[in-house]
Batch of 4 targets.
Target 1
Amino acid sequence: MSDRTLHLAAFAAAGPVSGNHGGWRYPGADLDLLSAGYYRKLGRKLEAARFDLLFIADILAIPTRLENSLDSQLRYGALGALRLEPLSVLSLIAGHTEHLGLAATISTTYFEPYDVARSLATLDHLSGGRAAWNIVTSFQHAEARNFGREDHISHDERYDRADEFLEVACKLWNSWEDGALVRDAAAPLFADPSKVRPIDHRGRWFQVEGPLNVSRPPQGRPVFVQAGASSRGKDFAARWTDVIFVTHASLESAQAFYREMKQRAAAQGRDPDGLKILPGIAPLTGETGEIARAKDALLTDLADAKAGLSTLAYHLDIDLSRFPQDTPLPEIEQPGIHGHYKEVAELTRKHGMSLAQIGKQYAIKTNRDFIGGYKEVADRIEQWFTQSACDGFMIQIPYLFGGLDDFANLVVPELQRRGLFRTDYEGTTLRDRLGLPRP
């Protein structure tokens, strides 16, 4: 095993889209998305392949950003056509796995710190220290209207609220000292009152007395995952985040981001190695390159350009139907998700793609460097990992369960043969496996 350990996380939605908008239409794809068995199978397969964690993405509305209509999302099974609530799904998976980390997407914009701290502490206890929180700041009008607001709050205010949200949540997890839960029936002493304290938080966004009514989690606090790529998002990540999930259109942009974020973490007084950067990729593989490219051709045919454009419109928070479809993506000053905008802007600059072409490309995943025979895919993973572009990858599975089986049965053993990836789990908690200290 090399000095550095490659980390692998799986990105999945409790719905139709993960790494490719045509994946749900692929022959043999499992569409039993509302069954417990589907998610049991997903968790067990990832654990058998020794993945660090499963990350379940979430949004709080069916996007209507393209043409102010639900049609493109629902018709094409795009990003937000169906999303089950992630904590419920992960709680189910926790009962059928022993080692796999469990990351739930929860918004700091529309939830409250006490409820989130309590739910994640519960998941961490019940899973034996495997909970993680993908922290998002919701930005869509459709989401705002589902929570009694006509408009969402501004970009910087969303991060102001998120900073205070994290402060409160951490205070709540720390409102019980380690060892406060005694459970001495003879004394009697169930919990030591001297080790449980209110937090008495009074801030701009939240007033929370505390303490939490769940004892301190096994990990101290859940692992924090975040995907912000704006300047403010990077500041937030450098301060709080354990794992950054971001997408890149090239090795060079990944290397630049990696350098920048490690420097930002150091500037915050953190150990840069305590910030794990996992770019999102959608590998498509097979025994040979020809097999992989045949699968890619079929998936490309099945992915409708309008589905990709609908999801891109959601990510950028702008109705892209109002622009000429045969011209390049226009410059956008305040995109919803900066990382996705940079990714497609880089493609536009490099290849002069029209908006319609970008929609198609977005539907099948913009970075095409991880399609090929299993050794080719392992080569590219090794290149990014050894050339300081990442600490591992967030694997966006093109279709379930065949796409996962191909990666787990072909690429993972190849990475293990090269000494890049674990052959068995180490430690007892997700923090142990990620090499992160317990706070």
Note: The two ends are 27 Å apart (CA to CA).
Target 2
Amino acid sequence: MAATAVHQLAQCITCHAWSPDQTMVAICPNSNEVHIYKSSPDKWEQVHVLQKHDQIISGIDWSTGSNKIVTVSHDRNSYVWNQEASEWVPTLVILRLNRAALCVQWSPKENKFAVGSGAKTVCICYYEQENNWWVSKLIRKRHNSSVTGVAWHPDNILLATTSTDGKCRIFSTFIKGVDSRDAGTTSSSELKFGEQIVQLDLSFSWAFGVRWSPSGNTLAYVGHNSMIYFVDDVGPSPSAQSVAFSDLPLRDVLFVSERMVIGVGFDCSPMVFTADERGIWNFVKLLDQRKLVPSSANYGSQLSGAFGKLYGQSKHISNDTVEPSRSRAGVHSNLITSILPLKVVGGAVKRFSTSGLDGKVVVWDLENQSEFSL
């Protein structure tokens, strides 16, 4: 069992984020508020409630360098929160959206953040020093449906997105005056803002969580068809693989190292995927060992396996090995909505956290497990 701490902070949590020193956690309890908890020796104490949005908050991110919190909501707005003395002061970001904002993430250098929306639009927001406000540039007419996930490449220029049109796309977000030409790779820094590098048509269903590996050489994203996709050599001729599994679909992913990924979602337990010496990705195990009891009814497993094989038959490499169906009664008892790294040593994640619709924030420790030494 890898879970080291379980915190019941609400009845339901849509997303969460940690402070730079990881002594505080901000959660969105499926409402228009952000609740910030501070750790104490025997419990977590609520110290702040951020109230400004009119509808459910769908995304939150806490910058590690500047200690700023960014939130987005179904009310189509975004706020950047700055801590002044003991208070958090919000600054409105004009997104110019006509549909809900769905996800948000700070760039690695924290001079920009990206917002995905139900308006088929991605907003790249940055601070304009002259006018003392946050402004946005929009990537339009590229997506055919809602943008469900955004992920920054380590070079601070490239941005990957997922959408309910089933596609994953990669764009340049170079902004003159904000980014320098030597900020990213030679190719990415020479591209214009909003220019699409590649469109990946691997999924036959909605696509959700997306993440880059620490080096930026590999991209992983998930589909609502119980499949996860891995892409190497992102560009005109990418190398892609798909892994099908019998369990329920994933919603978010995290690279533990260059050769290991953890996915979370509807199955309520983190799933581990690894790449072998040949670079072939495979499903390894569920982290929550209490969920390894086979279900008495295996019809669902057989049906899921059949669909996994069907979806795996494509021009890219496919691994469609399916496992027996399992009961779902572990640390999390409902959908896991997000996964975040907590402790990184030498580029490898040693501790991470998950939050779910069961209202829990769970901390998972990988340090003492030999199978996570990749």
Note: The mean pLDDT is 87.
Target 3
Amino acid sequence: MSTPQNKMHLAAFVTAGPGRPGGWRHPGSEPGWLSASYYQHIGRVLEQGKFDLMFLPDILSVPDRLGGSMDSQLRYGALGSLRLDPTPVLSAVAAATSHLGLAATISTSYFDPFPVARSLSTLDHLSDGRAAWNVVTSFQDSEARNFGEDRHIDRDQRYARADEFLEVACKLWDSWEDDALVFDAETPLFADPDRVHSIDHKGDWFNVRGPLNTPRSPQGYPVIIQAGASPKGRDFAARWSDVIFCSHASLESAKDFYQDIKARAVAHGRRAEDVKILPMATPIIGPTTEAARETEARLFELVPPLAGLSTLAYHLDIDLSELPLDEPLPDVDVPGVQGHYQEVVEMTRREGLTLRELGKKYGGRTEGSFVGTAAEVTDGMAQWFTEGACDGFTVGSVHTPGAFEDFVRQVVPELQRRGLFRTEYEGTTLRDHLALDRPETGQWHDRRHGNADGDNG
């Protein structure tokens, strides 16, 4: 289902800031968000637990989608109230670890291919092959205003740009042949000019001569991560991604997504196992089921409804303050993240929630509903994995770093005892961990057909 050894994969969703609107208020949360040692500690914990990778999301503004104000984000420590740049954070983690994969979120809408390709190639070299790129297009006008624009580019254009951006990045990563560095001091021949090539790309969005001024990196290309929930977004993810990050409100919807993405990958000439699907899971672990449920209830009470609504308004790109709070979320046209909309619609219908209740539920949600003892959490994760809903999980934390420490100390040994997860790393690069082949030069070419339509915020 995933690797030839049928082992699940684990990524950690680590926000370089407070993240969850109630979690930072929990007594087990440590507010070390501005310290390199904080992230290095988390990285060492995850590496002790043999995680595949550490994944840092990003936002390029303080969101103001609820009522046109940043107040709810800043006041309640919501999703975008504080975010450090992922790449230097991961560089610090790279220095403190030796196996853990390092995934940076970088938008294709507000950067250019050359510096992004060089930055990720550099991270891959300095980490000995552990870099990954979570590709996002961004979708908020508040982000556009930080880059000299009044409004974000429309959906069709931003995915056309993203598609070409990836093409240019891959050309740049291929611009040095693997054996171009010679280091022959006697000849002298430092790098063979015949093995370093300009790319001479001229497109609708970018004109880039190249070559990159860093050699081809240990993984060839960094591991590509993406999310997309609309039909075109799924197609984009199935074509380009090595790892797909997603969120589901039920096991059934996760199974449907899994089958659809695998079929799309095969339709693009890839093997189903070349795309790893890692849905979000936010476990709460206790010594007893009752204790875990009590922790869940306490965390839920720490979430102000407006904090959850502010986060949901950002994800959907809709000003929810204009809708009646004591009525259910109506059917709406969502310009933002389709996956989160489908998740909350399913949640609203299943539980009969008003918008106010949905805000609190969304802010305090524990994706996957893995709440209980370590054995019970493992039972739930094993069910999703063995029934074909995923290739593993992107594990979030309700409070950081304590929730990751609990998971590594209690759940990982249970997964290992059941033969579901590795006991040791069997390779050195992130592609090794994920059982992915190192791409050949030019391998990107078969993936680029048409545009895409899907977000990852």
Note: The chain has one domain: 9-173+218-304+366-447.
Target 4
Amino acid sequence: MPIRNIAVGRFEEATHPGTLKQGLAEFISTLVFVFAGSGSGIAFNQLTSNGATTPAGLVAAAIAHAFGLFVAVSIAANISGGHVNPAVTFGLFVGGNITLFRGLVYIIAQLLGSIVACFLLEFATAGWVAPAFSVGADVGVLNALVLEIVMTFGLVYTVYATAVDPKKGSLGTIAPIAIGFIVGANILAGGPFSGASMNPAVAFGPAVVGWSWANHWIYWAGPLVGGGIAGVLYEFIFISHTHEQLPTTEYN
């Protein structure tokens, strides 16, 4: 059964220097990603008098997030794997590719990275606050939730196919590009409807700094459900027993 591959790990893992170093890498990469992605939205708002919801603004956001995520994944890949997203970390956890305690360190680091990035943006732009994610006009909450589930499923499935699958071969070299591209494409598809978060950390930072929590639960529930489904599906159907589970006795 799939549940046998899920590893809790040991509490000592959360304070191990190796785990903390990986957490720092996730903090920095998430900060870089959110600063670039949310910063592009602020810049476009400033240049167009709050016109970020125009077609040009949507394209600009897609490109900025695609490029930013490509870099963020690349700079952390050799240290932490370059998750940059609690939904990715959760998807890898349910597939048995990361322990619970290490995953919690990653998620906390990602959330802190997003918060710090948004505070830095507010300071650097003399008071412009990163816009919080929100459900589009005439879009139901359930519609937005399903959209976030589907888009995050595609993202985490891409992570598994290009970065996690032991049979990926040379495909792994383009994993950051593929991951960035799927996020950019999803923003073009879902941006006007749910904001196309696909990442609880990306939504959490602006919500904290701007203290805007309307329908915020969607940006946790949708990505975690979508990421979890992708992790279970790919790991236990396409990788199956060929996968070598992460060691859990390193901290004995």
Note: The mean pLDDT is 91.
